[in-house]
Amino acid sequence: MTDGPDLFSSDSPDQGSPGPGVGGSSAGAGRALDPLAVRMRPRTIAEVVGQDHLTFPGSPLNQLVEASGGDRAGASSVILWGPPGVGKTTLAHVISHAPGRTFVELSAITAGVKDVRQVIENARRERDMYQRTTVLFLDEIHRFSKAQQDALLPAVENRLVVLVAATTENPSFSVISPLLSRSLLLTLRPLDDAAVADLIDSAVVSERGLAGQFELEPAAKDFIVRIAGADARRSLTILEAAAGIATAQAEFADGSTAAHSDFDGESDTDSDESEEVGETGESKAEDENRPILITEAACAEASSETVLRYDRNGDQHYDVVSAFIKSIRGSDVDAALHYLARMIVAGEDPRFIARRIVISAAEDIGMADPQALPIAVAASTAVQNIGMPEGRIPLAEAVTYLAMAPKSNASYMALDQAIADVKNGFAGQVPAHLRDAHYPGAKELGHGEGYRYSHSYPHGVAAQEYLPETLRGKRYYEPTGNGMERSMSERLEMLQRLLRP
């Protein structure tokens, strides 16, 4: 299971086995070794935070949670779509806890058609013999092939199983249309910073969490919120790891203090006061009960860098690339460099990035700055020759140049209009004086007759018709007033007067 428990309530009552975690109690030994994110999992829909648009009273999700057996139909099967750490698996488990439910969990990574059919057969038995509805939670449904998804259709359509499918990929690309039409698509939103901060605070004090044995430095909490990237599970994972580091550092500090005291030659029997009073003037008992401070440095050690939400084959790939191109087109150099950085950090193929830069130079800058395309091509060549990570340097140079260059799509739009005319039947015949006259018999057909050689005329421009008769007088290229096209506009008007006096 790859999208584990991930939504948490900051004000829900603590229930169940607390589990010690780092420095926790030993109560509830069955959950003692569970990760902090698992121990803090919500158990009811009321405890789920950050998804108010899905959990309001009477919502389809609420109906699905509250429906009992066959007394109420409730909502249909659902597909939960959202980034990691926002609650897809949590919601599936909350749904499974409704009365009259049998919960079955499969992962699309390991399950096949045979497993799906076995679940369906068991679901039929559960319904016929015990009047229980089977909830099938299918994690990472986007990894199922079309044939595997097809196997689910009859059971979903007849509500033999209530399918709760989770995916981090856009279902429009990864889930077959018949299954989408038989299910409700629920989009989960990333948690905002305030929600993640509340969850961290709750985990620090909750008996299911760190049980008040740690104190979180404000800067440390801000660091976790920032580095977690709206992923609640990741925030708790970092918190738990930082708590372990803080514990080890505290134990090491205590050991160093003891060793230092022995080195100074102080005897254990010098005075009762030396045994009972710590460095801060408080008794050792009070010092031992003091919460261990989790610092920003400990959090930084627990998480060396952000895990970037980016899938080279999914919607994030297309979203980031789209934002990258639009930022260059919009002349926002800082935004363009930001999205370039995201692609590089995520491990995007640098050749793909270079191709997009070349396209942008031709499409969005064009003749407003004819140097943009050679610079983009040079960056692409450099990346292929030197590779990464050094290849990021020419990429950055090209992106900076393109973003700051004047913009024009006049050439691009002119060609598209010309293509549209050709496709719409306005191609017409090539004028006879422009046709090839070099092959045998061409001159007898009138090819080349009357052609005017441009270099024999003033300014190198010969007045004659170049377009087919069907397009006589047609103009495609309309220069903008940006960059070099400002002067090109003047030249174009002069050329038009010479060509068509």
Describe the structure.
One of its GO terms (molecular function) is ATP binding. This is Putative ATPase. Belongs to the AAA ATPase family. RarA/MGS1/WRNIP1 subfamily. InterPro entries: AAA+_ATPase, AAA_assoc_2, AAA_ATPase_RarA/MGS1/WRNIP1, ATPase_AAA_core, DNA_pol3_clamp-load_cplx_C, MgsA_C, P-loop_NTPase. It is a single chain. With about 500 residues, the chain is an alpha/beta fold. The protein has helices spanning about 35-40, 50-55, 60-65, 90-95, 115-130, 145-150, 155, 170-175, 175-180, 195-205, 220-230, 230-265, 270-275, 285-290, 295-300, 315-330, 335-345, 350-365, 370-385, 390-405, 410-425, 485-500, and strands at about 75-80, 100-105, 135-140, 160-165, 185, 215, 290-295. It has 4 domains: about 50-185, Rossmann fold (3-Layer(aba) Sandwich), CATH 3.40.50; about 190-255 and about 290-315, Orthogonal Bundle (Helicase, Ruva Protein, domain 3), CATH 1.10.8; about 315-405, Up-down Bundle (Zinc Finger, Delta Prime, domain 3), CATH 1.20.272; about 425-500, post-AAA+ oligomerization domain-like (Orthogonal Bundle), CATH 1.10.3710. The strands form 2 sheets. The protein has a 5-stranded parallel sheet with strand order 2-3-4-1-5. Mean pLDDT is about 80; it is low at about 1-30, about 70-75 and about 265-275.
